[in-house]
């Protein structure tokens, strides 16, 4: 079999299987049989990539992963739908992520592991998806990529595209935090601000990208976004030497990060490298909680999202069904937190741990604090920190007033003890 196609695509709704050659040469994103994009609704027919795990089991042993470093997906190439042989090593190295992102705090009060994704090339988890999407685009000979984004996916695509010499088009809602907008512009991307919410930006991007033949990085819609995000599970596996956490708190908006992480750990299970999945806890904001609500009553009803945590603000989570499956199959649960809890957790994370994150990540910490009694002290708990706090100044301003300004002499009078 050609290395290029040692994988196939499977529909997560109707379970039909498709040859990779057909899906990729025809630039198909969602299931050709049942796939359905409707305004303000979760996507139907999201495609998932799968491999011959029984065959790969022989190749990828625990020893194999002990000898490679994290942050470089091309070091275990047969678990990716990308032909890495097409690329020069120095070019791939431009896409390396930091080697060990785990911070472990062990105190009387806490025994916590943080997976710190704020040090990625554009300071968010989204780089994991973008790397896979951009490598696939180059492989397909495409030179322009589009994405709808609340900010992080857009700045990630803009930054990685700038690094790889590709043109990017980013559709964002008008409430995008200023720092994220400026980050996107700084990388030289074309930015289109939609007078509406993320869901409207998503639908517009689908329409324009297909009319202009741009490759589409819309999250969940492009199967490579879920695939790219699975790399976090492999990196956690590599960095803990197989002693993975028992529980992982994940901030959830569209449902793609949790689905990607679930896929990564499910693959590690299929490869016989771990014996059980970590429980995945979906944390959502009260004003954007469609996935947690669905876990309770199996119903979706669209409500415009309203939360300070813009990165997890999605009224119609596009990957709702897969995210729900990730929580259920991993024996996790969903939890909602309000904006006040999110902001006070942001402050606590900064001041007690020195981790400055945006509100979506502090939602993870807020969710952890609310449910701490569900876990034993022996359980290894990890919190996923998906984006830097410097991406959203307004939330930081809520608890950092402008200090007073005085002359040097005045400060001397106040501060000098001798
Ligand atoms: Zn289908």
Notes on the protein architecture:
- The protein has 418 residues and is of the alpha/beta class.
- The protein is 39% helix and 15% strand.
- The strands form three sheets. It has a six-stranded mixed beta sheet with strand order 4-5-13-10-11-12, with helices on both faces.
- It is globular.
- The model has no long low-confidence stretch (mean pLDDT 95).
- Bound molecules: zinc ion.
- The site of zinc ion has 8 residues, from loops.
List the uncertain runs.
none
Structure classification: alpha/beta
Overall morphology = globular
Element-level helix/strand string: EEHEHHHEEHEHEHEHEHHEHEHHEHHEHH
Helix coverage percent of residues?
Answer: 25-40%
The radius of gyration computed from the alpha-carbon positions, rounded to a whole number of angstroms, is 21 Å
Strand content: 15-25%
The rounded distance between the terminal residues' Cα atoms is: 79 Å
The side-by-side strand order for the widest beta sheet comes to 4-5-13-10-11-12
What's the number of extended β-strand segments?
13
Describe the biggest sheet? 6 strands, mixed
Count of discrete alpha- or pi-helical segments spanning 4 or more residues = 17
Attached small molecules: zinc ion
Mean pLDDT across residues: 95
How is this structure best summarized?
The chain is α/β, with parallel strands linked by helices. The protein is 39% helix and 15% strand. The chain has helices spanning 20-25, 53-59, 62-66, 89-93, 127-139, 152-164, 178-186, 198-212, 223-229, 231-239, 256-270, 290-297, 320-329, 339-353, 359-371, 393-397, 408-415, and strands at residues 7-11, 17-19, 47-51, 102-106, 111-116, 144-148, 167-173, 190-194, 215-216, 247-251, 279-285, 334-337, 381-385.
């Amino acid at each position: 079999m050609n290395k290029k196609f040692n994988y196939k695509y499977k529909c997560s709704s109707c379970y039909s299987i498709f040859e990779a050659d057909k899906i990729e040469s025809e630039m198909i994103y969602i299931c050709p049989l049942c796939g359905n994009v409707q305004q303000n609704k979760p996507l139907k027919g999201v495609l998932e990539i799968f491999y011959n795990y029984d065959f790969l089991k022989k190749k990828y042993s625990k020893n194999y992963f002990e000898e490679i470093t994290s942050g470089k997906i091309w070091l275990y190439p047969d678990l990716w739908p990308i032909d890495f042989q097409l690329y020069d090593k120095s070019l791939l190295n431009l896409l390396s992520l930091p080697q060990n992102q785990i911070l472990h705090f062990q105190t009387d009060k806490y025994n916590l592991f943080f997976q710190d994704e704020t040090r990625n090339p554009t300071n968010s988890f989204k780089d994991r998806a973008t790397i896979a999407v951009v490598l696939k685009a180059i492989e397909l000979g495409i030179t322009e990529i589009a994405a709808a984004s609340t900010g992080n996916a857009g700045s990630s695509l803009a930054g990685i595209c700038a690094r790889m010499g590709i043109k990017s088009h980013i559709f964002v809602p008008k409430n995008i935090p200023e720092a994220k907008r400026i980050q996107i512009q700084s990388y030289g991307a074309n930015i289109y601000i939609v007078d509406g919410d993320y869901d409207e930006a998503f639908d517009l991007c689908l329409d324009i990208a297909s009319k202009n033949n741009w490759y589409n990085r819309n999250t969940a819609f492009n199967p490579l976004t879920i695939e790219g995000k699975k790399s976090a599970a492999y990196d956690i596996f590599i960095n803990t030497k197989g002693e993975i956490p028992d529980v992982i708190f994940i901030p959830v908006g569209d449902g793609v990060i949790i689905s990607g992480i679930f896929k990564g750990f499910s693959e590690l299970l299929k490869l016989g490298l771990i014996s059980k999945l970590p429980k995945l806890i979906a944390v959502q904001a009260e004003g954007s909680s469609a996935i947690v609500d669905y876990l309770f009553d199996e119903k979706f009803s669209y409500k415009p999202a309203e939360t300070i945590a813009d990165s997890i603000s999605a009224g119609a989570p596009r990957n709702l069904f897969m995210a729900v499956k990730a929580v259920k199959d991993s024996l996790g649960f969903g939890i909602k937190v309000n904006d006040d809890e999110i902001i006070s957790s942001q402050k606590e994370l900064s001041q007690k741990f020195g981790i400055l994150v945006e509100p979506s990540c502090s939602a993870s910490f807020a969710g952890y604090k609310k449910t701490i009694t569900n876990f034993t002290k022996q359980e290894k708990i990890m919190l996923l920190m998906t984006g830097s706090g410097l991406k959203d100044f307004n939330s930081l301003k809520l608890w950092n007033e402008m200090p007073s300004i005085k002359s040097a002499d005045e400060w001397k009078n106040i501060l000098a003890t001798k």
